[in-house]
Amino acid sequence: MSGSAPAAAVSQAFEERTYRKVTWRIIPFLFLCYIFAYIDRVNVGFAKLQMQQDLKISDAVYGAGAGIFFLGYFFFEVPCNMALQKIGAKYWLGPIMIVWGIVSACTMLVKTEGQFYLVRFLLGVVESGFFPGVILYLTFWYTEKHRAKMVAAFMTAIPLSGVLGGPVSGWLLERMSSVGGLRGWQWLYLVEAAPSIIAGLLTMLWLADNPGKAHWLTPQEKAVLLAHLESEHSRKKSAAHSRHTLAGAFRSWRVWTLCFVYFGFVMGNYGISFWLPQIIKDSITKDAFRIGLLTMIPWGVAAIAMVLVGHHSDSTGERCWHVTLAGVAGAIAFAVSAIPGISGVTALIALTVATAGLASAFSTFWALPTAFVCGAAASAGIAWINSVGNLGGYLSPLVVGKIRDATHSMTPALLLLSFCCVGSALLTGLFFRRKSS
């Protein structure tokens, strides 16, 4: 007995060092890649400040173009994940990053509504393989014990992309307009696409498809990782046969309810992502660089809130009320920002709270599905929730654009986003409070 304790302690320490080594190798790199991906996805919100006037497009056309990205994303997400499993991560994620960088850069060439719609749709098709692909890729390395924290760390790239991308986008619009015969918004697409292309090339050199192919791991480290993954796979396979089937995910009312919950939060998130620069331009300043600096505030606060709330949720094991209360806070803040006559500074403070609330809800939302389904139903259910929920990214900018064209005001649009957030929060609180941990 006395001899087994030190051996167990050494084994535990070795395991922790191994996972730490893996984490430092892949998570920071994937984190940076997601920042580049998200900037290429939402920088259209900054480009709009000049592009809309140059191309003579309405808010409704802009909203439709910004959102059509998610139609391509919806239809190709599942096929792309199937391709990753067959091809391998490094030779799938790397090339699609290169291609999405090229497609994003091509937005600088659009001259008509149809061209704008086409390039945004193609960007969604190409990028649809990245986020779900990374989530799948993490399952090749981490068991559920470690995976939740890794996903949370990876997803903090969303608010941080706003912190980094805002000032850069504002500077490009302000300083590069008419340089080399190009407008500032054209330089924005060209310059911000370059990191994605470079990262795609590096991906094929840096990533390993799985622990067995990682030359930077020792044989003992590979054995530890593969043994844990095999053990979890066997356990899940048994659970899948005994209780949860693939078809069960689509028959589950909880899965469908979570689709609506996620849809509402995504509506709010992309309402901010695609329209925040315009809101600041309308209410505080028309200087593009200052707009970029001001957008750092909501996204910076959101990044901090996301980490703190996610850590507290992990510490307590509670999920439901963390999601619910964060959603309610976001809904109230959206409603405050919609008050007619409110000052620009006050509206920015309210939108900062709304952004932080949404980020906090996202940080714990993905722990809910696995509390109700497992095995094959879990993988299918999570993919379906993500696919259906992300359609909110299509509808949100489209509806907001039509509302602005019809009313020449953001008030009704912000109230709509508030309604979506409170609806998602109430659904969570009503139906998931019993099994939230």
Written account of the structure:
Helix 4 (90-106) packs antiparallel against helix 5. By secondary structure, the chain is mainly α. The longest helix is centred in the first third of the chain and has 39 residues, at 4-42. The protein has helices at residues 4-42, 44-55, 59-87, 90-106, 113-127, 131-139, 144-155, 157-175, 184-206, 219-242, 246-251, 253-283, 288-316, 320-337, 344-365, 376-389, 392-407, 411-431. The relative contact order is 0.14. Residues 1-10 have low confidence and may be disordered. It has a single domain, classed as Growth Hormone, Chain: A.
The count of β-strands is 0
Main β-sheet, in a few words? Answer: none
Number of helices: 18
Structural class: mainly alpha
Share of residues in strands: under 5%
CATH architecture grouping = Up-down Bundle
Chain oligomer state = single chain
**Would you identify the regions where 5 or more consecutive residues have pLDDT less than 50?**
1-10
Straight-line distance between termini: 35 Å
In total, the number of domains comes to: 1
CATH superfamily: MFS general substrate transporter like domains
- Would you list the SSEs in sequence order as H and E? HHHHHHHHHHHHHHHHHH
CATH fold name, please? Growth Hormone, Chain: A
Any idea what the radius of gyration is?
22 Å
Shape: globular
Mean pLDDT: 87
